[in-house]
Write a structure and sequence with these properties.
The protein contains 10 helices and 12 strands. The chain is α+β, with helices and mostly antiparallel strands. The protein folds into 3 domains: 9-105, 2-Layer Sandwich (Alpha-Beta Plaits); 121-186 and 246-344, Sulfite Reductase Hemoprotein, domain 1 (2-Layer Sandwich), CATH 3.30.413; 189-241, Alpha-Beta Plaits, CATH 3.30.70. Strand 4 (78-80) and strand 5 (86-89) form a beta hairpin.
Length: 350
């Protein structure tokens, strides 16, 4: 029905894309940050990709400036990718250099295509989420600055995707990135009996995946510390069960995720570093850990080998040795209530 829902697709795609819809035969990366798609007709479509501010957040002033650049070089057509990058689609080949200059002038670096660091994805984190254990967007900014030289080049063994999730809900997709930084709570939900009385008791108890929440007469709940895995499921159901502590909250580093079907297929990342402290504003321990993992991968990977493919070739044991990371029971998949899952995760010579 007209006027309901999102605009029709044909009204939002660039003319060059509309002319060749479904008729693309190949694409290549002629230079860092630039994609070239070739259609059956021989027509070439150039796309310029740039990194965006953390969490894809822009002011209205920057948004208008971006639109002005899109009007100037791409017939007013731009898109935001699922990795929160900016793309100008349909830029004439002769105007690519000028478009890059104008994007750089806005503080938007051009890069993040193919064998390089792609734009770092982050959820909102502390900005406005009650579940967050860390500042996901702030970590994204810190890592983007630290890895800026990688983003601008095309000299990695394969593509590299880094994602930041403020908590284990993984809205930032940290679990499916080559390297994921995930916020973790290490304390228990704090039960406020008076507020819990106003909540739906059955719902609070039923959402707990480990059965850690039990009724506490006359009308409250209690949390079993031996079962709680700090997953924040109950926190979203009742304001009387807040979680989070500035001293104990921090981040964990996951490695080996992959969301695409190409090559070895999709894969969930594995826990590698169980805990690093929250140290804003630059998170130096987290930045150092991420860079060390990248450097080890670059030094040992074959061409076109993503991080998980490299690890699968050398083995997780060798990976931990190369990074000099101590192995503990926390790296095993699952939790104490589901011990059989440990047999499906990180394997050593058992």
């Amino acid at each position: 029905m007209p006027g309901i829902g999102i605009p029709p697709l044909e009204k939002t795609i660039p003319p060059i894309v509309k002319r060749n819809y479904g008729k693309w035969i190949y694409h290549e990366v002629p230079r860092p940050g630039v994609l070239k798609h070739v259609a059956e007709s021989g027509e070439e479509c150039y796309t310029v990709r740039a990194g965006m501010p953390a969490n894809g957040r822009v002011s209205t002033a920057l948004a208008r400036s971006i639109c002005a650049v899109a009007d100037k070089y791409a017939e007013g057509h731009l898109r935001i990718t699922r990795r929160q990058s900016l793309e100008l689609v349909g830029v004439p080949e002769a105007q690519i250099d000028a478009a890059i200059v104008d994007l750089n002038a806005l503080g938007l670096p051009v890069g993040g295509v193919d064998h390089t660091l792609h734009n770092i994805v982050a959820c909102t984190g502390w900005i406005h989420c009650q579940f967050a254990a860390t500042g996901a967007a702030a970590i994204s900014k810190a890592l983007s600055d630290d890895l800026y030289d990688i983003f601008l080049k095309e000299d990695l063994p394969a593509k590299l995707k880094v994602a930041i999730s403020g908590c284990v809900n993984n809205c930032g997709e940290g679990i499916t990135a080559d390297i994921g930084v995930i916020g973790i709570h290490r304390d228990l939900p704090r039960v406020d009996d008076e507020k819990v009385k106003k909540c739906e008791m059955a719902l609070i108890i039923s959402v707990c995946p480990t059965g850690a929440i039990r009724p506490k007469p006359p009308k409250s709940v209690q949390v079993d510390p031996n079962r709680c895995m700090h997953c924040v499921a109950c926190v979203g159901q009742c304001e009387g069960m807040p979680i989070g502590d500035p001293v104990t909250d921090g981040v964990a580093i996951y490695v080996g995720g992959k969301s695409g079907n190409a090559g070895s297929g999709p894969n969930f990342a594995k826990l590698v570093i169980p805990y690093l402290p929250n140290t804003p504003p630059r998170w130096p321990e987290t930045s150092a850990a991420v860079r060390e993992i990248i450097e080890a991968w670059v030094a040992g990977a074959h061409k076109h080998e993503r991080i998980i493919d490299w690890i699968n070739r050398i083995g997780w044991e060798k990976f931990f040795e190369k990074l000099n990371i101590p192995m503990t029971y926390k790296q095993l998949d699952g939790y104490v209530l589901w011990p059989m899952s440990s047999r499906t995760g990180v394997r050593f010579h058992w």
